[in-house]
Amino acid sequence: MWTSARGARRAIRAQLGVMASGRGYCMYCGDGLGSTVDHFEPVARNPRRAFDWLNHLLACEFCNSHHKRDRFPVDNAGEPLLIDPTVDDPLDHLFLVLSIGTYRALTDKGRATIEVCGLNRPLLERGRAAAVEQVAALVTHWWLGSADARRRAVWTLQDQPHADVLHAMLRQASLPGASRVLDPDLLPLLQDPALRTALQT
Fold first, then answer.
1. What's the distance, CA 172 to chain centroid?
2. Region at 104 (left for phi over 0; alpha for psi -120 to 50; beta for the rest)
3. Cβ atoms of 37 and 44 closer than 8 Å
4. How far apart (Å, rounded) are the C-alpha atoms in residues 129 and 101?
5. I want to staple 131 with a disulfide (CB 3.0 to 4.6 A). Which of 28, 60, 92, 165 is the partner?
6. Which is nearest to 32 in space by CA: 10, 63, 69, 66?
7. Would you give the distance in Å from CA 127 to the centre of its chain?
8. pLDDT tens-digit profile of 15-38?
């Protein structure tokens, strides 16, 4: 039924695109544009969830077809070992090493997600490392700019790929030892409550 339901698939994909970050980026890698609907719990494992809205994620073709596919590891209790980005905060399970764009697992769920989704593929690491520099420049532009420049900086921050980089930088700015990880000139800007408020609107 899922295969033949073209209209339903298009509608689901369109709605997921509205909910995804930026211009509708993949909910796994955050880099490619989401072009397919992925079933978080694969249809092959649980056909009854084929049309379950809470089981649909927007994914790029590369993540969906070449990495996750029908893989769905579970723990000894049968609970999913993949991060569900609609329920879980990925940063509770993953730590982004900003200088090299690489994820380190904080939990078993983080470890399985890195492996199944290929989150540390070289192109993604390079993209994240570059995004750190872009985020830093945009945050500085926001800090120094006029009201109009600030609006444009916030829009660009929200629209760029690798939204995970911005969120990791904001999270790490509030951790002990942040000055050893982040540029000391950038740190107070990332800690500014006005920036966080602007990004939430």
1. 16
2. beta
3. no
4. 5
5. 165
6. 63
7. 13
8. 888 887 778 899 999 998 888 999
